[in-house]
Design brief:
homodimer, alpha/beta, Spore Coat Polysaccharide Biosynthesis Protein SpsA, Chain A, seven-stranded mixed sheet, nucleotidyltransferase (chains A, B)
Amino acid sequence: MKALIPYKKKNAKSRLSPALTQEEREDFVELMLRDVVGSLHEAGIDEVDILTTLDNGVPNDLQANVVLDENDLNEAINEYLSHEQKSIFIIMADLPLVRAIHIKEIIARPEDVVIVPGKGGGTNIIFIKDPSNFHVKYYGSSFLNHCNIAKERKCSVYIYDSFLLSTDIDEPHDLVEIMLHGHGNSREYVMERFDMETGKARARITVSDDA
Amino acid sequence: MKALIPYKKKNAKSRLSPALTQEEREDFVELMLRDVVGSLHEAGIDEVDILTTLDNGVPNDLQANVVLDENDLNEAINEYLSHEQKSIFIIMADLPLVRAIHIKEIIARPEDVVIVPGKGGGTNIIFIKDPSNFHVKYYGSSFLNHCNIAKERKCSVYIYDSFLLSTDIDEPHDLVEIMLHGHGNSREYVMERFDMETGKARARITVSDDA
């Protein structure tokens, strides 16, 4: 089994710009990546490949391999899958709420494919037992795409239902979820910078006076 | 065991007004209520109390009791809990993605209290084994409130992690989740009225031309 993490640092997460500068966002995505890799290792997945491009430097001290591919996300992943025999656990780098227990539960499922839906029809994690019999199609409603591809390929599918794994960190209000349910480097980073402001509606973040 | 569903129909869900008129929203909250009650019955919870006020007519054909209380949500629920000996499963009426399997898993937990977090620090479901030893505090970050109350009362707590149960239907983009992951009356209603528009970002809804 191997894990694959698509990763982009350069000008990442532009939708977080109301809350964080470009430099802060680039620091922050690296911290989220560290938390994801940490949970994978804790779950016993030692072989971790980070799929990225030349100008998105992955830190040297991460126990992970760097796979460079300048193509777009789908092409790059499908190229990778076509050369793989082992089961592949594809997880996005912006899921710092993931814990080892989630990963262990997902990889223990007997189905051919496990899909973890994100908000709005995304695919936050996909676990593929036989990568030679699957291809990915991110963007658009990738959750439906992946359900359909599994059906065409006659793969059994399990939909793993998790709030924490549905929470990819894209927008300022997602940072609240890190404060409430997070751990590790990303939580420390957010707690240092923001306060939680609560009213009748959903909790929001506010920038600390001393930030 | 009993279930308690706080319910408000009159001018409900104002944040859905970009997508639905007041009359439509009032119809829609009733359909969501029907789906929630249906899943409770399917999970074997026969005794369902709907907590509401005089002007929020609960349909007569629902197999549920109506409990009228004109006080605010917290006061009304705490008054209810103070007179109850049975375990209470408090579920919000805007959770049409709930299925019987979720409910069965929650009520099978051995802990004193099970909390199902919503987005932004909400409490979407709380299951309380001994209602005489608990009180609720909705609004604000009720998830943290309820964790703290459990700690004060020395209750063991389980946090039930579910994307589907974290998805209370408050804003137009939440309707997409009903299209993707829903069932029952509420899904039928949404599918008749909206199309899904997908691009690189999260899926959005658009009003059907023939709506």
